[in-house]
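User: Reviewer 2 asked us to show a designed sequence for the structure in our supplementary figure. I'm pasting the C-alpha cells here. Could you produce the per-position amino acids so we can include them in the response letter?
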C-alpha cells in the first residue's frame, strides 16, 4: 500500500529541554518543507498539555527530559490518544531504549548523532503512516544479562531507571505523580521480574545495560 502524507500542512511538536537544541532542529525541520509547522515543548508535562490542546501529525521527542521522561510521556500519550505518532529522538544508542520506545508505541527511534537528513526522512515516513529505525541504533545480540529489561512496562522501566540512579521512593512518587506505596509495589515487582535482591543490584544491571552511566 502506498503511504501518503497527511493533507495540508504537517504539524510537528518538538520536545527537548535545551532551547538551543530545539532552535537548531526546528530550523532544520522548517527548512525541509515550507508546509511543516513546528511547535516546541521543553518537558514531558508541557508536551502532554500541548497534545491535549492541539492535534499534531508527529511528535519528535527526546527521552532525557526534566520531570517525567520521554518514555513516560510516550506512555501517557498512548493512553490518552493511541493514534498519536511519536518519533523518539535521543542521545541513547543502547538497544534497551529503542526496544522500550517501540514496544511502548513509538513509531520510530533515531539518535541525535544521526545525519540531518535522517531526521527529515524519519518524520516524512512516520507522518505517512510508516515506522522508522535509525541506521545507527545498535541491535541486541542475545545479551542474556540484560534481556529481562525487555519484559518491563514503560512505567516499570522508568521506575527501574530512577531507582538505579539513586532516587528515593518519595522523590519518584512526586516526579511521576503516584503514591509512595505504588512506587514501593512497583519496586518489588521489578526486583522479582529481574531476579534482583536490592537497589544496588539494580544499579549494576542498569550500568551494564547502558541505562545509566557508571
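Assistant: Here is a per-position design you can include in the supplement:
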Amino acid at each position: 500500500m502506498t503511504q501518503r502524507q497527511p493533507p495540508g500542512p504537517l504539524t510537528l511538536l518538538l520536545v527537548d529541554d535545551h532551547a538551543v537544541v530545539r532552535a537548531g532542529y526546528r530550523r532544520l525541520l522548517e527548512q525541509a518543507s515550507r508546509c511543516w509547522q513546528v511547535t516546541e515543548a521543553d518537558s514531558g508535562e508541557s508536551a502532554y498539555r500541548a497534545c491535549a490542546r492541539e492535534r499534531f501529525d508527529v511528535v519528535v521527542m527526546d527521552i532525557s527530559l526534566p520531570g517525567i521522561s520521554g518514555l513516560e510521556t510516550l506512555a501517557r500519550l498512548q493512553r490518552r490518544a493511541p493514534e498519536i505518532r511519536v518519533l523518539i529522538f535521543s542521545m541513547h544508542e543502547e538497544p534497551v531504549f529503542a526496544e522500550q520506545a517501540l514496544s511502548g508505541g513509538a513509531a520510530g527511534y533515531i539518535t541525535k548523532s544521526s545525519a540531518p537528513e535522517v531526521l527529515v526522512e524519519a518524520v516524512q515516513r512516520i507522518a505517512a503512516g510508516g515506522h522508522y529505525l535509525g541506521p545507527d541504533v545498535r541491535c541486541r545480540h542475545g545479551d542474556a544479562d540484560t534481556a529481562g529489561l525487555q519484559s518491563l512496562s514503560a512505567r516499570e522501566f522508568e521506575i527501574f531507571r530512577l531507582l538505579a540512579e539513586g532516587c528515593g521512593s518519595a522523590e519518584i512518587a512526586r516526579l511521576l505523580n503516584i503514591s509512595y506505596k505504588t512506587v514501593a509495589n512497583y519496586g518489588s515487582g521489578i526486583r522479582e521480574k529481574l531476579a534482583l535482591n536490592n537497589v544496588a543490584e539494580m544499579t549494576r544491571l542498569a550500568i551494564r545495560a547502558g541505562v545509566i552511566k557508571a
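For the response letter, you might also mention the following. The mean pLDDT is 89. DSSP finds nine helices and six strands in the chain.
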